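Protocol step 4 of 6: record predicted structures for both targets in the notebook before any analysis. Target 1:
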Amino acid sequence: MSEYQAAAELLRALASPLRIAIVLRLQDGPKAVHELVDALGAPQPLVSQHLRVLRGARLVHAQRHGREVAYALVDTHVSKIALAAVQHADET
């Protein structure tokens, strides 16, 4: 896969306001699903669906802690990209 194709897939995975919000919430460290639901004010099934997309794109990973599943960014690059996009949109 070319680097351009990989970049396009990354941007496609971020192509949702809720997924951008999730990524930005995770930049401070791992969060359980219920923490993301509370912080974002979105229904749990919707947050879980978007987390599946981010996992499929290998942008986040999950770790089970008893009955809870915590999600974390694979690396900080993705949060920098999301933050730059939000800042750019705010400037226009």
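Target 2:
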Amino acid sequence: MASNPSESKDQQHPQYKSERQLVNQLLSGEPTDLNLAELARLRIRFMSFPGARDIQADLDKVLQQWQLTEANLFEKTRQIHQTQNVYRGRGSGREDWS
């Protein structure tokens, strides 16, 4: 019996544990340049991921707390990345593909 693709199981993200900690920090943090960049990165990472629903919901909460739309967030972070390296000293040379 073939399974329906829309009934597929949620997956566990390989970076869930560390990203969960970061999301918790964002929930209680302020919209600094670094936090905005991290929020945008996490929105992109989890936007179509089939799982981590709690992280996705909390990222929505952070946007609401900071009174931003996703479009506003991405515009702000494009400007930030054009003018500075917000990840300086945080392992910016490592590639993060997971």
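Step 5 preliminary note on target 2. Helices lie at 16-27, 33-46, 53-65, 70-83. Residues 1-7 have pLDDT under 50 and may be disordered.
Proceed to step 6 after PI sign-off.
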